[in-house]
Amino acid sequence: MQLTLGAIVEALGGELIGDPHQIVSGLASLKTATSPQLSFLSNPKYQAQLTSSSAACVVVSPTMQDLAARRGACIVSDQPYLYFARLTQLWQRQRRAHQPLEPSIHPSSVIHASAWVHASARIGPLCVVERGAKIGAHTVLKSRVTVGEDCVIGQRCIVHSGVVIGADGFGFAPRGEAWEKIEQLGAVRIGDDVEIGANTCIDRGAL
Question: Residue 36, exposed/middle/buried by CB under 10 A (0-12, 13-18, 19+)?
Fold first, then answer.
């Protein structure tokens, strides 16, 4: 995938010093970047890597502008690290736009008849969405995610592989030298714009 520097600045802002028609084909660190790639400098302690970097363009703060311009193209931003974060988002959107459209629910997944999945959500391979669960708009479940009974995931969430939401919380009450199980009757509510890391387990509450 390729983008011109002009297209990047048009989408994300910043001041471009260099040729707007120059093409970049990837993102990389200052140390590892090659001539078709774009990098960034946010921490001054890596300043020495700037002058030796082979990156086609570097995102820098105004204080590093002159130094960066002497080595080649640069994009000037008040917050280079935030700019780089948004650049990764732009790159991901562009990459997905060129990929074949996948089904919203992978055929290997199991969705209970009473569960509700928004039409814009994406359910990956081998997922299980149990009775009464709800999956919000533009939420993505990666592979092997389990969403337990009556649990809710909001909008624009990313749930990575192996996550279990709504497993039993393992509550017990003492009874002499034994234990009585407390049935976990509650559920889990995940709000909007949440990202959950791989193999995380979020248990349901007792109530």
Answer: middle
